[in-house]
Structure formats: C-alpha cells, structure tokens
Amino acid sequence: MDLLQLQKRVYQNKVAKGFNVTDIFKEFCFMYGELSEACDAYLKKKDDLGEELADVALYLIGLSELLGINLEEEIMHKMEKNEKRIYENKDGVLTKVKE
C-alpha cells in the first residue's frame, strides 16, 4: 500500500462527502473520539474493534494530508530512530538511556 496515495484518497473522500477539511482542531477531536470508541470496543470485547482501529487510522491519515505531512516518510524516520534507541529496566520501569 502506498500511504501517500491513501492520504490523497482519504482527503478526496472527505471533500466528496462534505466532511471537514479546514478545522484541524476538530479533526484531532474526531480522532480522539474514534480512539475512545476503539478502546471501548476492546474493553467490551466487541466484534467491531478492527473497524474502530481503521477509523482511527483513517482520521490520522486524513489529518496528515490536511497538514501536508507525508505520514509514510515520518513513520519510517521514527521507526529508524526508535530502533536505535537503547532502554534499560530501572526499578521496573523501561527507561530510555541513549537516543
């Protein structure tokens, strides 16, 4: 899957359906709501957990497009950074000791 193409597809769907594409704060709020629904589905062992997680991802992908952020590049950069980090268990807490 090409995430950048998916970003554009999500954006086009929002425009075609008349959804918000200007109020960034509102998009964060909607994404938070979807994350809450996913958490609820997990806690209540509902069958729609996957769909709720997809909603969270779609809001994140759409928000990235609204902000002009190539999410795929950012994810790859962050994974490389995370893989190089070193952690130690200090008194039962995993603590980053080297960037």
Automatic annotation (TrEMBL):
GO BP annotations, alphabetical order: nucleoside triphosphate catabolic process
GO molecular function, one term: nucleoside triphosphate diphosphatase activity
InterPro entries registered for this protein in UniProt: DCTPP (IPR025984)
Pfam families: MazG-like
Source organism superkingdom: Bacteria
Protein name stated in the entry: Pyrophosphatase
Organism: Paenibacillus borealis
